[in-house]
Amino acid sequence: MNKQIPFHRYIISLICVAIISGGGVYMLMNQATMSSSEEASQDELAKVHALYHTIQENYYKKVDKNALIEGALAGMTDALDDPYTTYLGKEAATELNNSLSDSFEGIGATLSLVEGIPEVAQAPIKGSPAEKAGLKLHDKILKVDNQETNGKELTDVVQTIRGKKGTDVTLTIERNQEQFDVTITRGEIPIASLQTEIDKQTHIGKIQIASFNESTAKELKEAIQDLRKKGATSFVIDLRQNPGGYLNQVEMMASMFLEDGQTIVKFATDDKVLGESKASKELDGGFKVKEPVAVLVDGGSASASEIFAAALKESADIPIIGTSTFGKGTVQTVSDFGDQSEIKMTVQKWLTPNEEWVNEKGLEPTIKADFPKYAYFPPLPKDRTLKKGDESETISNLNTFLNALGYETIGNTFNDTTEEAIRDFQAKKNITVTGEVNSETAVLIEIDVATQLQENDQIYNKAVEVLTESKE
């Protein structure tokens, strides 16, 4: 997905390792092995076999046979010109499965890259191997099993630290300018797919759902029950930047908000509707949410998120607040070849209860609301210093950020007013006052802007307004 991400969520992503990813809606399948090549027509694959042998016999240097096969498999899915149908090698398949799982095996520490060095970005998960080993916030990880981390991609470092439960990994840590090694035994780390909080003043329970993984429906039911005990009389379901997940989970979750018999989603081929899923006791176990509800969406809400929002919008007349969603209207299955590689393949499209196909256009919210424009600006550069006399769109963005923080800065020129604002900002942050924007100053400006956007979340505020009015 390449639609815009709100700035405050982008900044959060800079200081967190994304555990949940994917961007799809997946049908659960048995891990059935794919059909063997003996079942394929040899005539149809004659050219493939001929090319394979020709390359092996005549290419000017030694050929990796496995690389040829993997390339051929990837080429077949690429030829479909479907971004959601992909051949997944072992590593990619593992990554997808982890992204949809409710747990992973590792140490339980969230990392960020700070000037090229991985750093512990949050206190380790309580009870995790990282916490038991004494890792602390801001610990720098210089080496993993004696391999330097400087300059490596964060995802590569994370994958190296992760590993099978019960195995050891040795990290070289720098803390307060001291270096030491810590050996940690990996364990199973649960992944919470949602977060909750209650506004005691309005009695609104807010539930932010990051993805639809293996246990999200169960987590949602428990969250609603807990929030009710805390006094919640209405709910906000936040699906912003939620890329999707398992179809069975979104069906169970949507059913909780609909009356039995109401349509959740319909399934179709190019020319006809094949069937539909309806709310029922079989899906939700008889657990229903009768309180007023509002759903938040944005351009990062995709696939399963769109199914949920469309079901509540069209079947239950529940307000959907935010911006147009991503627009992914297809369903994928994941099938195993038997050697840890997989194929993720589109098998049908899904339609809203009113038989609208949101693919490539998105679901329109009931009520439009958005962050200010600067929420979608790109981050400030960290590889160069911005200073007086500079003139560019980047400086215009800088001045807008500063203006949002209360400084009287405008225009695309780094002028006296900009310099004065930077000096004041640096003094308040107790960092070296230079009047120039280096990497440290840029990060602190972005964090303050992100915090302000979170504290003045216009989309959430609109939901509060709607729910408050519904009680009057």
UniProtKB/TrEMBL annotation:
List membrane-spanning regions: 7-29
Alphabetical keyword list: Hydrolase, Membrane, Protease, Serine protease, Transmembrane, Transmembrane helix
Give a Pfam family name: Peptidase_S41
Residue ranges constituting the Tail specific protease domain according to the UniProt record: 177-370
Q: Which InterPro entries match?
A: ClpP/crotonase-like_dom_sf, CtpA/B_N, PDZ, PDZ_6, PDZ_sf, Peptidase_S41A, Peptidoglycan-bd-like, PGBD-like_sf
Identify the residues that the record assigns to the PDZ domain, covering every copy. Answer: 105-177
Q: Does the keyword Transmembrane apply?
A: yes
SUPFAM superfamilies in alphabetical order = ClpP/crotonase, PDZ domain-like, PGBD-like
Family from the record: Belongs to the peptidase S41A family.
Q: Write down the PANTHER family for this protein, in alphabetical order.
A: CARBOXY-TERMINAL PROCESSING PROTEASE CTPA, TAIL-SPECIFIC PROTEASE
The entry's protein name is Peptidase S41
Q: Which organism is it from?
A: Candidatus Enterococcus willemsii
